[in-house]
Design a protein that fits this description.
Elements lengths: L14 E3 L5 E2 L11 H14 L4 E2 L2 H9 L4 E4 L2 E4 L8 H5 L7 E5 L5 H6 L9 E5 L21 E9 L9 H14 L6 E3 L3 E4 L2 E12 L5 E9 L5 H4 L17 H22 L2 H4 L2 H4 L6 E6 L2 E10 L5 E5 L2 E5 L5 E4 L3
Parallel strand pairs: 6-7
Antiparallel strand pairs: 1-2, 1-6, 3-5, 4-5, 7-8, 8-12, 9-10, 10-11, 11-12, 13-14, 13-17, 14-15, 15-16
Length: about 350
């Protein structure tokens, strides 16, 4: 999803899998042995996050700087100035009413790429969270800025009945799920078709949906979501569009928000798999920030101006041009606000 990350390193943290005592390590899709020094440093950082003081070392300070974690050194003891809340599989899974195999990575290239590369594991959805992404991806190949321990980076892989063509509208459904979760926190976010979540005109969250078939011919989708909980000026300088974050407006903890988002998505995906897009179509107007407003559709080098007339039965964009309505699919165009 979105980040300009640090250079390739030769370690990553253990991954905890729900209902399992197995531990895994991943770097650029390859299993490796974690060097003892890096393993020790990660555990030291976890202890710092818990409020402990750790004796200063060059390795520890190097990684803290690398992760942009502010610290102070007092009498050769390191303390974090603003410890992040790290994601916890147990805290998240206890808040779910549905089964899911959950992993949390310390750092990973891309949560979507990781799940796309996995072999078939049955009908239980697989969920991958990360504290940091090194090569997060958004729609149309854009990079998603993913600082360590601050935001939500989640991907979910789920099987679906039917054919790939039956997944039309899925990206809109996921956008509706995410914006509903955010509004439940008292934050008046909205949607720009097909699934960009905006707050005060800036991009708050992005969604990337990738589909495929497994070796048995079953259709699956990998759904990636990035939500900006907190961005500083250093991160913001790397973003080439208007952005927003929840900041102090979010009253929930990071783990509470992650669990609520996952629960809502799992529920809505069940509904979509059973009933298709129809149950979600009527929700769109109340979240569409450009409903009835002038917009510009970009299709390659072509620009088409009109007004946002909502979506059709499949979640495609309806653009009113004079007296006519033209239909656009999410895969072929991008949408921008027009001039009043």
């Amino acid at each position: 999803m979105f980040f300009a990350g640090r250079k390739n390193r030769n370690y990553l943290a253990p991954v905890r899998v729900q209902n399992s005592h197995c531990f895994f390590s991943l770097l650029r899709k390859k299993e490796i042995n974690i060097p003892p020094v890096r393993d020790v440093v990660e555990q030291q950082i976890r202890s710092l996050v818990d409020g402990e003081n750790i004796r200063v070392s060059a390795d520890l300070l190097s990684v803290l700087d690398e992760l942009s974690l502010a610290y102070r050194v007092v009498e050769e003891q390191v303390q974090l100035r603003n410890p992040p809340e790290l994601l916890d599989v147990d805290l998240i899974s206890r808040r779910l009413s549905r089964a899911a195999a959950i992993e949390v990575f310390w750092s990973i290239d891309s949560t979507n790429s990781y799940l796309m590369a996995q072999k078939e594991t049955g009908d239980v959805p697989r969920v991958c969270f990360a504290e940091q992404q090194l090569a997060g991806r958004g729609r149309r190949g854009r990079q998603w800025i993913s600082p360590f321990g601050r935001n939500i980076y989640i991907s979910l892989r789920r099987n679906f009945a039917g054919q790939i063509s039956d997944l039309t509208g899925l990206s809109v459904v996921v956008g509706l799920s995410a914006v509903c979760c955010i509004r439940e926190c008292g934050i008046n976010a909205g949607l720009k078709w097909p699934n960009d979540i905006l707050l005060d005109g800036g991009k708050l969250a992005g969604i990337l949906v990738e589909v495929g078939t497994n070796s048995m011919g079953r259709v699956f989708a990998v759904i990636g979501i990035g939500v900006n909980l907190a961005l500083d000026s250093r991160n913001a300088a790397q973003i080439d569009q208007r952005w927003s974050h929840l900041g102090l407006e979010l009253s929930k903890s990071r783990n509470e928000f992650a669990a609520g988002l996952l629960e809502k998505i799992l529920s809505d995906l069940e509904t979509f798999d059973l009933h298709g897009f129809k149950p979600f179509q009527t929700l769109w107007p109340q979240y569409n920030v450009y409903q009835g407003m002038p917009v510009v559709v970009h299709r390659g080098d072509e620009t088409i101006s009109g007004s946002d007339a909502g979506i059709d039965d499949d979640g495609n964009l309806l653009l009113q041009i004079g007296e006519k309505i033209q239909v656009f699919s999410a895969g072929e165009v991008s949408l921008r606000p027009g001039k009043m």
